[in-house]
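1st attempt posting a full record on here, be nice pls
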Amino acid sequence: MRYWVYVVDGVSREPREPLFVEAASEEDARAQAKELGMAVVEIEAVEPKVTTPSTPAPAPAPQDGQASDHSVARVLVTVFRVLAVVIEVLYIVLFGMTLQAVSQAKEMAERMGVQVELSGGAALVRIAVKGVLVVAALLAVAELLRLGMAIERNTRGGAALGQERAPR
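the predicted structure (as C-alpha cells):
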C-alpha cells in the first residue's frame, strides 16, 4: 500500500517535505522514514485509484440510408474542385475566343474601309473577373464542406452526420 508520511527532521525538528512511501503497513512506512533520519508526525494511507480503460466507444454503425463517414460530402468536395478546374479551363477558352473575335472584327472593318473603334479590353476583363469569381465560389463551397466535416468529426467524436456520439 502507499502512504504519505508527514515528517520532521529527527534532530532539528524542522518540518520536511512529506514522503510518498510504498510499504506493507503503516509500521513499515514509519520504519522507512526513521531510516532516513526523520521523525513521523502523521501517516496517511493512499487508496489506489480505480481506473477504467479509456478506450473511446466505437462510432455507431450507419443506419439504412445513411452514408458512413460523410462519403457524400467527400464526393461533393471532389466534384466542386473538379468543376472549378473545368470552369476555369472553359473561361480561358472563352477569353481566347473573345480575343480572336475582336481581332477578326478589326480586320473585317479594315477590309471594308470602315473606321471602327473596337475595344475588347472591357469584355476580356469582365470574362476574367467572372471566371475568377465562379472558381473562387466553387472552391469556397468545397472547403466549407471539408471544414464542416472536420468540425463535426471533432465535436461529435467521429460520429456520422445526424448521429449522437456515445456518452463517456
